[in-house]
Amino acid sequence: MHRLRDELPGVKYSEKSYWAAFGNGRRKVAQLNVNRRGIRLFLALAPDDVSGLQTTPSSGSWAAEFPSVFPIANEADLPRARQLILRSLARNEAIADDVPASQPEYSAPGELLPEIE
C-alpha cells in the first residue's frame, strides 16, 4: 500500500488497519482492501471501462461508489493498480467538472493506460 502511495504523490491518501483510500480531496476514487485472500483494489470505474476489471462483489452504496474491483496478486500487479487509480481519478474529475476525461497533469506520458493517453 505504501508503494502505491509513494508513486502517486498528487493523490490524497488515507489509511486504516485493513484498507487504504485514494481520492481527489472531494471523494474517494479507489480503495485497497486487505484480507486473508489478498488485496483488492475497488475503483470508481465501471467494470467495462477498462479490460481486466471485475464487477464488485459488494452491494448497496459500496457497489454504487466502487462498481469494479481489480485483484492484486503480487508486486507485478502494482503498476497496473497505479494506472487504474489514475484512470479512476481522471474519470471522476471529469464527471465533477462535466468535461471529457483527460490525462492528469501530474502523470507523464506512458504512465496511463492506452485508453486515456
User: Treating each run of at least 4 consecutive H or I residues as one helix, how many helices?
Assistant: 3
Portion of residues within helices: 25-40%
CATH class: Alpha Beta
Task: Please tally the β strands and state the result.
Answer: 6
Widest sheet, order of strands? 1-2-3-4-6-5
Q: In the CATH hierarchy, what is the architecture at level 2? A: Alpha-Beta Complex
Number of domains: 1
Instruction: Give the integer mean of the pLDDT values.
Output: 80
Shape: globular
Main beta sheet: strand number and arrangement? 6 strands, antiparallel
| Span of the ends, CA to CA | 25 Å
Q: Roughly what fraction of the amino acids lie in strands?
A: 25-35%
Instruction: Identify low-pLDDT runs.
Output: 99-104
Sequence of secondary-structure elements? HEEEEEHEH
Quickly give the structural class: alpha+beta
